[in-house]
Amino acid sequence: MGGSGHLRGKPIRPKEIAHGISAAELIEETFLAYNAGRLREACRLFTRKMLEPDVTVGLSITGALTPAGLGMSSLIPLIESGFIDWIVSTGANLYHDTHFALGLTMYPGSPFLDDRKLRQEGVIRIYDILFDYEVLLSTDTFYRKILSEAEFSKEMSTAEFHHRIGRYVNELEALPGVGRVSVLAAAFRAGVPVYTSSPGDSSIGMNVARLALDGSGLRLDVSRDVNETAAIVLDAKNKGKSALLMLGGGSPKNFVLQTEPHIQEILGIEGAGHDYYLQITDARPDTGGLSGATPGEAVTWGKVDPDQLPDAVVCYADTTIALPLLTAYAMASCRPRPSSRLYDRLALLYGHLIKKYSETEKNP
User: Fold this and answer.
1) Are strands 123-126 and 129-132 parallel, antiparallel or unpaired?
2) What pLDDT shows up at residue 5?
3) Distance between CA atoms of 144 and 120, rounded to whole angstroms?
4) How many CB atoms lie within 10 A of CB 12?
5) Distances (CA, A) of 249 to 20, 277, 283, 314
6) Per-residue pLDDT, 364
7) Cα separation of 197 and 334, whole Å?
8) Which strands form 55-61's sheet, in the order they lie side by side?
9) Which pLDDT value is given to residue 48?
10) Which pLDDT score, from 0 to 100, does residue 80 have?
11) CA distance 259 to 230
12) Is 303 a catalytic residue?
């Protein structure tokens, strides 16, 4: 037949799926085409390049993942293995993450129930997850109690805000019968900074707003967040490479990606974009939304290094299916990395960013 260079490599001829096959083996041997093929590419990119010692890995979290248990099953193992260095999450994921440390319960249900009846019975629904309205009230009480402490009565970045909350949640995990259930607690222990790109857009933000009416001095410094995340990426590029694992899209996706345009376009510091781009999404690119925007489009904004575009993978899949498989593959394929403990170094990295910006301003 023809001599096309495209007709090379291992042909599609998988073995039968045998009893006892591991998740990693299943992905390698049978995920050969379509979005299964993209998930295999994602697993390979994550484990063979993104988890190299000189790569800093940022994670963005959207969609109601923690209520579905993905924090416990998938995100905590990645954090504790040193596979995640910094995080941008919706506030909702962090709020629902706290339920578990408080000993509150979520239940599997159905998306086809009568929501009017659920409202009458005081039951909250997130698609097919059900929980009692008291779960919200108890969590709100917890937040207002700790946020009323003197240590929160000042201006701070959301990374400092979540780190301080993480200490309290970590103490809850030490209580009998709780265990390691919280992403916030795991990030606190590992020194992983956790940001929220829209701090007012969640029940945590609403409780902060109520405390403001009560005279609280707590203020969340979103400009500090923008500059700190840029400082993290600048440091990553100075010492090695920067990688992003994006679960879904939305504001957290843009927040992790905009670090490079902030460095290059706004601060005038020379840069080339992130090195590795891995996204799991169900959003289409043709509607113009950021959630479905492709890595190629990101190149035009300076978000992704054009020379690294072949190492960009978009897997069009439900995160609740793809993330556990990606985590299982990584746990089976890679040894843990030492935690970079970026939170402990944020002040230093911030100072480096200021210095670099000052030098650029003096030498435009």
Assistant:
1) antiparallel
2) 78
3) 26
4) 8
5) 35, 13, 8, 11
6) 64
7) 30
8) 194-195, 86-89, 55-61, 241-247, 276-281, 312-316
9) 98
10) 98
11) 5
12) yes
- The pLDDT score that the predictor gives to residue 9 is 81
At 4 the pLDDT is: 77
Q: Which of 237, 241, 253, 303 is catalytic?
A: 303
CA dist., res. 86 & res. 225, Å (int): 12
| Structure-token pair, residue 54 | 């000189």
- Three-state secondary structure of the chain: CCCCCCCCCCCCCCCCCCCCCCHHHHHHHHCCCHHHHHHHHHHHHHHHHHCCCCEEEEEEECCCCCCCCHHHHHHHHHHHCCCCCEEEECHHHHHHHHHHHCCCCCEECCCCCCHHHHHHHCEEEECCEEEEHHHHHHHHHHHHHHHCCHHHCCEECHHHHHHHHHHHHHHHHCCCCCCCCCHHHHHHHHCCCEECCCCCCCHHHHHHHHHHHCCCCCEECHHHHHHHHHHHHHHHHHHCEEEEEEECCHHHHHHHHCHHHHHHHHCCCCCCCECEEEEEECCCCCCCCHHHCCHHHHHHCCCECHHHHHHEEEEECCHHHHHHHHHHHHHHHCCCCCCCCHHHHHHHHHHHHHHHHHHHHHCC
- Residue 2 pLDDT: 54
Q: What is the mean pLDDT of each run of 10 residues along the chain (364 residues)?
A: 74 93 95 96 98 98 97 98 98 98 97 98 98 98 98 98 98 96 98 97 98 97 98 97 97 97 97 96 91 92 92 96 98 97 98 95 69
How is residue 358 written in tokens? Answer: 């000052």
Structural domains in the chain, sorted by start: 35-362 (3.40.910.10)
Closest CA to 152 of 213, 228, 92, 212: 212
